[in-house]
Design a protein that fits this description.
Largest sheet: 6 strands, mixed
Number of strands: 18
Shape: globular
Radius of gyration: 32 Å
Helix content: 40-55%
Distance between the termini: 72 Å
Length: 637
């Protein structure tokens, strides 16, 4: 047992957040903590770290437990660089190393047994702490999280907020904590860094708990899901996708138990009313006492109102909705992306992905006509009526109530119709009378999306529609879009969302290239990995061919005469060397790929072994090349 929460309750300002949360985390467990915004997930982290105390119940931790918390706002010491900030996770090792350097300077003149013994003890401690590999581990993680070597010397004071969070993540992953507490770890990471982190955590040799709205990330990094719902914790085995299935089964069972219990309560109350003053008074009182002691089963708190959205059919566009040929986009004379080609048909969903700054939003502004294309062309099909969802949400009127804001789309609609539709976007009860100005970022996003989908536009262009939405809100959006019969173009970093709705992927690359793929995100991801593997093999074969070409065109020495037997022996040995070089360079490429693996950075012993094998293999290749050059000069062909 690493830690346990036992019937923990916590309230803020009279509002009960946790009503009796109980769960335990054990060694090596990989846990995802999920629940709606405000359910109490971050409160659980604050209770574990001691930043908050429970109103009642217990938070029990293993003696000496070292918790590592990924904070949302990270600070660094003045004058630290990116590199030194990452290495600061190894304070004990670096203190040992500094003491060793000091003693080495003393040992020039001091040869006393005490000094030599102290140095030997420090050297042993340094080796046991994996002191020879800590710098390489830190640099591997910096690279994986998107810090190039050129950025390692940057002062942390000039980093952006997102860069500071990524550097805080690097320092945390190197901290050696017994349990990592990761609150939205994929924030500020591009797709490549997120995928690196997924692989790293997959090989990580300690426990962690993740709070995340990224369901795809949870699928790939967790083996147990704990849901905070109605102030209590429910645990499920498996990743997020398995959790969805098991939760639905549990809720169906809970609803049956609730309905059966309600029937029993109703029948018992009816018996009490009829017999409390009659001949069966004693039995009636007994049953009343039974009802008072009965532990009530909660009704399932549905996150959806059930049924269909009732969306009206949108006007049909032509079959070809959007076509682009050799489209180049950007600003002025600066092209962000070029060679864009696609064909989007009625009813399809185009998912747009790529790192920040690669041109995704610029592409949307270009096809919306807000900026001019730099080259190529794009053509909208017939009868297209476009609705646009922007991240700034500036189409909402702050003074309006939620229901008034939706009424702007359909002034003649009755309240029941509007309220029913808003309920599908999780605005229930008095929520519909909240002022827009009082809504959270996620609530404003839900309202803007509800307006857009209700508007009956036949083409929706969505720029990061899941930003600020919790998981239930994302599921509500997915349900709405599943019923929508128009065409959708969406920029999104939510891979789970793209898996649910996308029929095409448009991927913007850092080098300005763009790929168009028919399929959802997972299909695109698998295709990309398969292609990268084949490309790597082709590149390796090209390198080997170049080496062989250099071998067979070696320089010929002048003035050397060899017998036929001597020449045959030299040619035979050169052929052997060429074969050995090919084999060793293949081994070197495999070791290099292994060392770049995020999983290896989490396993110090394996990383050291790989580094030793790389050094030995590289040295043997250099020796073979030296022998080959010498023999080639002797051969002189």
């Amino acid at each position: 047992m690493l830690f346990r929460l036992n019937e923990v309750k916590k309230s803020y300002g009279g509002t009960e957040i946790l009503r009796g949360v109980s769960f335990q985390a054990n060694s090596l467990e990989k846990i995802g903590l999920v629940g709606r915004n405000g359910a109490g997930k971050t409160t659980v982290f604050r209770l574990l770290t001691g930043a908050e105390s429970p109103d009642s119940g217990e938070v029990i931790k293993m003696n000496g437990l070292k918790l590592g918390l990924l904070e949302q706002h990270v600070e660094f010491a003045s004058g630290e660089t990116v590199h030194t900030a990452a290495l600061s996770a190894f304070k004990e090792i670096r203190d040992i190393e500094a003491e060793m350097r000091r003693l080495e300077a003393e040992m020039v003149t001091d040869h006393s047994p005490e000094t030599l013994e102290r140095y030997a003890d420090l050297q042993t401690a340094f080796e046991q702490a994996d002191g020879f590999s800590y710098t390489a581990r830190a640099e591997s993680i910096l690279l994986g999280l998107g810090f190039t070597r050129d950025q390692w010397a940057m002062d942390t004071g000039v980093l952006s907020g997102g860069q500071k969070n990524r550097l805080g993540m690097a320092r945390l992953l190197l901290s050696g904590a017994d349990v990592l507490l990761l609150d939205e770890p994929t924030n500020h990471l591009d797709v490549n860094a997120v995928e690196w982190l997924e692989e790293f955590l997959g090989e990580y040799k300690t426990a962690y708990v993740i709070i995340s709205h990224d369901r795809y990330f949870l699928d790939r990094t967790t083996e147990r899901i704990i849901e905070i719902e109605n102030g209590r914790a429910v645990s499920y085995k498996g990743n997020y996708s398995k959790f969805l299935v098991e939760r639905e089964l549990r809720r169906e069972q809970q609803q049956r138990e609730y309905e059966n219990q309600q029937a029993l309560i109703s029948k018992t109350q009816d018996f009490i009313r009829k017999n409390l003053a009659g001949q069966k008074t004693k039995q009636a009182k007994s049953r009343r006492n039974m009802l008072e002691r009965l532990e009530r089963v909660d009704a399932v708190a549905s996150e959806k109102s059930g049924g269909q959205f009732g969306l009206k059919k949108v006007e049909r566009t032509g079959n070809n909705v959007l076509m682009a040929e050799e489209l180049s986009i950007g600003y002025g004379d600066k092209a962000l992306a070029s060679g864009i080609g696609l064909s989007l048909h009625r009813g399809e969903v185009l998912g747009i992905i790529g790192a920040n700054g690669t041109g995704k939003t610029t592409f949307l502004k270009t096809i919306l006509g807000e900026i001019r294309e730099l080259g190529g062309k794009f053509i909208w099909g017939t009868k297209t009526d476009i609705g646009y969802y922007a991240q700034n949400l500036d189409e909402l009127h702050p003074a309006n109530e939620v229901i008034q804001e939706l009424r702007r789309v359909d002034p003649m609609a009755d309240n029941g119709t509007l309220r029913s539709f808003l309920a599908r976007f999780l605005f229930v009860g008095d929520d519909v009378f909240k002022r827009v100005d009082d809504l959270s970022g996620g609530e404003k996003g839900r309202l803007a999306l509800a307006k857009l989908i209700y508007s009956r536009k036949n083409v929706l262009i969505l720029d990061e529609p899941t930003n600020h939405l919790d998981i239930p809100s994302r599921e509500a959006l997915e349900d709405a879009l599943a019923e929508y019969d128009g065409t959708i173009i969406t920029v999104s970093h939510d891979r789970f969302f793209l898996d649910k709705i996308a029929t095409q992927i448009l991927a913007f690359e850092a080098d300005g290239g763009v790929e168009n793929f028919n399929g959802n995100y997972t299909e695109y991801h698998d295709w990309r990995l398969n292609r990268a593997g084949k490309k790597g093999i082709r590149e390796l074969n090209t390198v080997l061919s170049d080496v062989q070409g250099q071998v067979t065109t070696g320089r010929a020495p002048t003035g050397t005469t060899l017998s036929k037997n001597q020449r045959d022996r030299l040619k035979g040995r050169i052929a052997e060397i060429e074969s050995e070089i090919e084999q060793r360079e293949s081994e070197l490429a495999e070791i290099a790929a292994e060392m770049n693996s995020p999983g290896l950075a989490a396993d110090v012993g394996a990383y050291n072994d790989a580094a030793d094998r790389f050094s030995r293999t590289e040295s043997s290749i250099q020796t073979l090349y030296a022998e080959w050059e010498e023999l080639s000069e002797q051969l002189g062909d």
